[in-house]
Write a structure and sequence with these properties.
Length: 140
């Protein structure tokens, strides 16, 4: 049998070839925040259900992880609270951006780049604003 070589098939471009930009970062972060929200949200929901079924003491321990104790929030509560809040706002801002892209708008390079940066800026501002309001209500 003759050894017939086939022509080389085109290779799919790898991430190292592409120039990284804000649009690529927003897309990757959107997927990561969506997966993170689903995973961590499910774990917290199951934890809450188990705590509620476990009785008042177990539920009080769960609530204690996410409420102010002796002038400060538990470190687990801070990490989960701030992280999840940022993920919610980042995922939401990115989703709004993708909505405009799906409608056929915002494909110009300059405006696309600007809205990519805006998703990060607005998610940080909204997260900080949310926590400022929450802590004012808590202490007020």
């Amino acid at each position: 049998m003759a050894n017939v070589s086939k022509p080389a098939r085109p290779l799919s471009p790898h991430l190292s070839i592409w120039k990284w930009g804000p649009s690529m970062a927003v897309s990757i972060i959107h997927r990561a925040t969506g997966s993170g929200l689903a995973t961590v949200g499910t774990i917290l929901f199951v934890w809450w259900l188990v705590a509620a079924a476990g009785g008042p003491g177990t539920y009080a321990d769960f609530v204690g992880m996410f409420t102010l104790e002796s002038g400060g929030l538990n470190i687990v509560g801070w990490v989960l609270g701030l992280g999840l809040t940022f993920c919610v706002f980042q995922h939401m801002m990115s989703g709004v951006r993708h909505l405009f892209l799906d409608m056929g708008a915002n494909f110009e390079l300059k405006s696309n780049k600007m809205t990519a940066y805006l998703t990060f800026i607005l998610s940080v501002v909204l997260t900080l604003g949310f926590w400022v309001l929450m802590l004012e209500k808590w202490n007020g």
